[in-house]
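Discussion board: Methods & Data

I've been asked by a reviewer to show the raw model output for two of the constructs in my manuscript, not just the figures. I'm not sure how much to include, so I'm pasting the format here to get opinions. Each protein appears as its amino acid sequence followed by a line of discrete structure tokens. Is this the kind of thing reviewers expect to see in a supplement, or should I convert it first? Here is construct A:
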Amino acid sequence: MYKLWATILKDLQILTRDRVGLIVMFVMPIVLAVVITATQNSTFELVNKNKVSLLLCNKDTGDASRELVTAIEKVGMFEVKKVTAGETEKQLSDRMHEKDALVAIIIPPNFSARVDAKAKATAAKALNNLGLQTDTIKINNDSVQPISLLYHPVLQSSFRQSIQGALRSTLQMVQSKQVLKSIYLSLNETELPPALESEIINNQVAINEVPISRDGSKTIPNATQHNIPAWTIFAMFFVVISLGSNVVREKLSGSFIRLKTLPTNYFLALFSKQITYLFVTLLQACVIFAIGIWLFPIIGLPKLNLPTDLAGLFIVSFICGWCAVSFAVCVGVFAKTQEQANGIGAVSIVLMAAIGGLLVPSFAMPESFQQVIKLSPLHWCLEAYYGLFLEGGKLKDILISILPLLAITILIQLIALFGLKRKNLI
């Protein structure tokens, strides 16, 4: 026991001298967690707080275009800036390049006439199907200009689709209102009363948004709940920069050979390193979780809510840390230089994070990647954490993620052992 304690103290002294490794293991993940959580939180709350600037050029003077403008303003997603009808598409583009707005909408001059004609034609078809004879109305679609949606290239595809969805909803509402007016006028020969129009149009079924959870909680997960577990795992695996280099340094300096001459076993030194860096990974988890709980609310980000099963959280953190340490030892065993250990370790972690769902959600990946995802230990780490943080599960609920992670960890340990024997280091 004394030998183990002395070896742990030696490893702690070596660790405290590795300032670059400490920065990579603690400072970098904290910065990533704060910056990325802040960015994603702004995206999640875009509809409620931050609005997209939009230039609106209405070249039409009819009722339908005015209703469309009103509907766009009521969406709540845009900060509408109305421009004169005389502005051209080129002028709007120049204003957008000057960052005056990210989106612009041009309503063509014949918009109201098109909507009115289409509404009358649809109403006529509906009445004919009911056995009521009406005049057939034809629409010349070739002469109708569509609404133009200009967007700045910085907007991503998913965000543009959200904007298009909001615009289509407002268009559908305006068109449906015109159809309703036409049918009412054809049947009653009077205009649709505003009160009845409002009652029919606004009589929508409410949507109750309920996240599924194992503990029955109705709390909607925020950006912090998604990002803190992910970047905690990322931080744990980056111990490879310090531990991998440490193992390589001992090989190159001849420490392995000197250890063979001492009345001890190298397995004791290797076990000491794993205990030391396992403590570091648990400390990383505590630090990042503490930042999510206490610092995030101060800087205006959502607070991290810890899962109810704290024992399960500790076990998951312990196994994730052990897997990270095992991977670092394995890299150090097979790398020939410290540069190789740092390069291979950093690149492999980024790749495993990418295919494991830390950088891109696993459900968004192509079907061909769904089996490759399961090879990444970071995927199982993330699934275990998400089962606690997002789904409100307990330890028994995430065994399906912990068991594969344990199997991968043991496999990595065996590969490292094989490498030590092959190099005659043990």
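Construct B, same format:
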Amino acid sequence: MAILELVTFKLAKGISEQEFLAENEHLNNWVKTQPGFEYRALAQAEGGNWTDTVFWQDMETASAAQQSFGDEPSLQGMMKVIDMESVKVDHQQIHTMQAPA
């Protein structure tokens, strides 16, 4: 069953939006190569909180990507620009999806 991964977080103290978005390009490049990856959207709320929304084919591929994230050398910079204590990860089963006709 398809999985929706929701990751919420704040930027690390002193990190600008531009610095974060530059590091985020490494994540964009990496996630596209992951088995089961379907779609990703990154959004920022008023007040500065971020939400990373990722669609995966199934829980197995979502879990595998989450486990390999920390070991990927190109993503080590992400650990420095995100307040890791603020990170919350939630996986939800997708029951229906609609797209424009």
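Answer (T.O., handling editor elsewhere):
This is acceptable in a supplement if you add a one-line summary per construct. For B, something like: The chain has one domain: 3-93.
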